[in-house]
Amino acid sequence: MMEYSHISVLRDEAVAALRLADGGVYLDGTFGGGGYSRAILEAASCRLYAIDRDPDAVARAETLRADYPGRFEIMPGRISELSEMMAARKAGFLDGAVFDLGLSSYQIDDPARGFSFRQDGPLDMRMGRDGRDAASIVNLCAESELADILYKYGDEKAARRVAKAIVERRKVQKFATTADLAGVIRGVVRPDKSGIDPATRSFQALRIAVNEELADIEAALEQAAAMLKPGGRLVVVSFHSLEDRIVKHFFAAQSGRVPAASRHDPAGLAPVAAPRFRLVTKSPILPGAAEIRANPRARSAKLRVMERFAA
Description:
Shape: globular
Strand content: 5-15%
CATH class of the largest domain: Alpha Beta
């Protein structure tokens, strides 16, 4: 397993938002490099469960298990399987849960994982080791389906042109590497004033599709919220608009901050359920200038917090 550095984004803010207490039970829903987990275990004499679908991350977690015997457990699997995993361990309810929805630097910086076009590697992008990889999508999906993926998950305005170029090229030679795919995309999408590489949006879209990330996030938020004790907090750090939109809308619905139905809409006659949560952050917490200078990948991060009402 190769060594890479990893910096947890908004770590101090996220851990502070949990309001940790000795004897509490907490969840780190996205272990990654373990930065959040270690900070939680150091801050309070608590019990912590962590989840990661990446076998490399699970292996890294063994260090924490040794450093905090009896207090830490890593659960291999997807965040959408949270309820099953916790039930199997008879873990009960949570005093707090945190999710850092971004990729870890271990995944981005390892060319063998195929997440980035900055170093050439196999066209993989799987967070785990199972299921279809990015090469399967690029080489096998119909042109219309591929265009839909690029537009829906990457907001790529040139999605149809990119999909057409990919399909034309794969007739001659299948795609196998990240550099190969990025080169074809750059031939279709021109650089804009943002300075973002033209392949960025398409690579994001493929990664989300490969890992079914958005559906996982929706399921994990529902399950984590249901497991929180009164006074428990749900803390989420997102990194792009699709993730943040899911978190924002979920928090708004749980806290009763949804528009009232029109008086002409029959749905407006139905009784409105009392909100179960309150928003702790009316607006997201953003990284400061110093953190962005130290870790440019933090620039798009947004931290949101909600708390379950006391019984």
